[in-house]
Each structure stands twice: as C-alpha cells, then as structure tokens.
C-alpha cells in the first residue's frame, strides 16, 4: 500500500511508532555515547561513574523492552481490529488476485481450444 493509504512511511512504521522513536531518539545511542553521557551526568551530580553507567544502561534497556512491548501491543490491536471488521489482509487479496488470474488464463485456453 502507498503511504497515503495506510499511514506508514517507507520504514513500515506508523505515525505512533515514529513519534515514540523520535521522542526517545537518544535510546539508540551507541554504548560509547551512552557511557559518555553517564560519565558527564555522574560528574555533574557527584555519583560514582560505574554506578551511573549501569543506571543509564538499565534505563536504555528498559526503554527498548518497553518499545518492543508497545510495538507488539500495536500489532495485536491492529490484527484485532482487522479481524473484528472482517477486513481482508494484503496477502489474502494477493492470493485471490493470483487465483483469478490463473482462472482467467485457463478460461482463455478453453475458449481458444473450443
């Protein structure tokens, strides 16, 4: 489907997921950048550097887990709505399109032989 039809960009992410990822963009920090952030934060507030690094890594890991949980929940909700509304899914439509094309081809062969 086109982006205008399904509200998804080229990445396949919906607006909600894109917004969450943008809002938590620094979650994607590399380990080195996260450590640098933790070191600076520890220096500014007077915490132990290693403890702060562990805390930052724990927060990032929790956010990643929460992002995965939200994504799974979104997928489940979407599937539920599609099922409840009895909407055809893309693969089902594609399968039927192929089957119709095959039937048209067979009819054409039968008409030619008749």
Number of strands: 0
Q: What number of domains?
A: 1
Largest β-sheet summary = none
Fraction of residues in helix: over 70%
Helices and strands, in order, run as HHHHH
Averaged pLDDT: 82
The global form is rod-shaped
Q: Calculate the terminal CA-CA distance, rounded to whole Å.
A: 40 Å
Please, how many helices?
5
Question: Which residues form runs of ≥5 with pLDDT under 50?
Answer: 1-9
Percent of sequence in beta strands? under 5%
Q: Any idea what the radius of gyration is? A: 25 Å
Protein topology:
Blueprint: H1 3-6, H2 15-23, H3 31-45, H4 49-84, H5 90-113
In short:
This protein is mostly helical. 77% of the residues lie in helices and 0% in strands.
Describe this structure in words.
- This protein has 114 residues and is mostly helical.
- Helices cover 77% and strands 0% of the residues.
- It is rod-shaped and about 90 Å long.
- The two termini are 40 Å apart.
């Amino acid at each position: 489907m086109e982006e205008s039809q399904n509200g998804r960009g080229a990445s396949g992410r919906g607006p909600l997921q894109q917004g969450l990822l943008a809002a938590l963009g620094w979650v994607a920090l590399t380990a080195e950048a996260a450590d640098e952030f933790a070191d600076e934060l520890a220096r500014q507030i007077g915490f132990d550097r290693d403890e702060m690094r562990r805390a930052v890594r724990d927060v990032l890991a929790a956010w990643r887990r929460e992002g995965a949980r939200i994504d799974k929940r979104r997928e489940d909700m979407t599937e539920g709505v599609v099922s409840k509304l009895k909407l055809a899914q893309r693969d089902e439509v594609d399968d039927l399109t192929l089957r119709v094309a095959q039937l048209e081809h067979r009819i054409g062969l039968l008409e030619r032989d008749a």
